[in-house]
Specification:
This protein is of the alpha/beta class. It is about 45% helix and about 20% strand.
Length: about 325
């Protein structure tokens, strides 16, 4: 009898609760509590590399800002496709994020099977940093600028070899973009990572390479290879004295490998804003800025909307380069 008397009283309360949750501010209230459990950041590379070290440094500081553990989980393989596909299928609640790389937009153009759309299946949060890439040559090559290199390549009777960290990587496509824009003939030699490619560059088996400054810097400092330029449109804060490819002989050339936080599509805007605000604060910390420089990274920290526009633009750009070069990965 008590239950039957209670039911009519509960109905208005339940109805009011449902109505309250439907109000515009309800999501904001829910987001204020975010996060209430650990947050995962998936890194699409093996432990120990610049991207992994960067993400762990970022995660430790985000832990303090968000008040919850930030767990870093590595899921390498298939040119970052494995990690990207995994995150795209997670719940859009802000508890699983991806430290995406340039290959997020490159992979669909070079892999036969990619189960995600780089634009539709992710919610951009912020482009954390650009990875400083340099155009380097074997020290014995008689060139000291991009202009010299283009002239040298055009004077050769046979193609000069250039190495990369693998077919379809940004280091490969940067070389293809250079070939097209400069009108030169180079033969691509793919390796399984930067390390073996750099070894052969030092040994003279290949003569040219585009590579991350973080991995090539020991060889540059030792004099075994020579850095001609950075690939970005503007000079790098990490290497302010090194000219860009564009200003030193190939106007219009630009390639900016990047790393940035994205969430599964449909993540609430309030949650995205919470993560973005916390990340912005972290990226202004002097100690982190210095650590990023040591890793060959230039901080960006743009807004979610700016990052979304950049991903669209970058995906289209490298799709054209991949198509023109015929680059395909197994």
């Amino acid at each position: 009898m008590f239950k039957s008397m209670l039911k009519p009283l509960l109905k208005p309360v339940l109805a009011a609760t449902v109505a309250a949750l439907a109000l515009p501010g309800a999501h904001a209230v829910a987001a204020e509590a975010y996060p209430v459990k650990p947050v995962r950041i998936i890194v699409p590379f093996t432990p120990g590399g610049a991207a992994d070290i960067m993400t762990r440094a970022l995660g430790e500081r985000l832990r303090l800002r968000l008040g919850q553990p930030v767990v870093i989980e590595n899921k390498p393989g298939a040119g970052t496709v494995i990690a990207s596909d995994f995150v795209a299928r997670q719940a859009p609640d802000g508890y699983t994020l991806l430290m995406a790389a340039s290959s997020l937009g490159i992979a669909p153009s070079i892999y036969k099977t990619v189960n995600y759309d780089p634009v539709k299946d992710f919610t951009p949060i912020t482009q954390v940093a650009s990875v400083v890439h340099v155009l380097v040559v074997n020290a014995a090559l008689p060139v000291h600028s991009v202009k010299d290199l283009v002239g040298y390549l055009k004077s050769q009777g046979k193609p000069t070899s250039y190495g990369s960290a693998g077919t379809g990587t940004s280091t490969h496509l940067e070389g293809e973009l250079f070939k097209t824009m400069a009108g030169v003939n180079m033969t691509h030699i793919p390796y399984k990572g930067s390390s073996p490619a750099l070894t052969d560059l030092v040994g003279g088996q290949v003569q040219v390479m585009f590579d991350a400054y973080a991995s090539s810097s020991p060889f540059i400092k030792s004099g075994n290879i020579r850095a001609l330029s950075v690939t970005t449109a503007r000079r790098s804060a990490t290497l302010p004295d090194l000219p860009t490819v564009a200003e030193s002989g190939l106007p219009g050339y630009e390639a900016m490998p990047w790393l940035g936080l994205v969430a599964p599509a449909g993540t609430p805007p309030e949650v995205v804003q919470r993560i973005y605000t916390a990340t912005q604060a972290v990226l202004k910390e002097p100690a982190l800025i210095e650590q990023f420089k040591s890793l060959g990274l230039d901080i960006i920290g743009n807004s979610p909307s700016q990052f979304a526009a950049f991903i669209k633009q970058d995906t289209v750009k490298w799709a054209k380069v991949a198509k023109a070069s015929g680059a395909q990965a197994d």
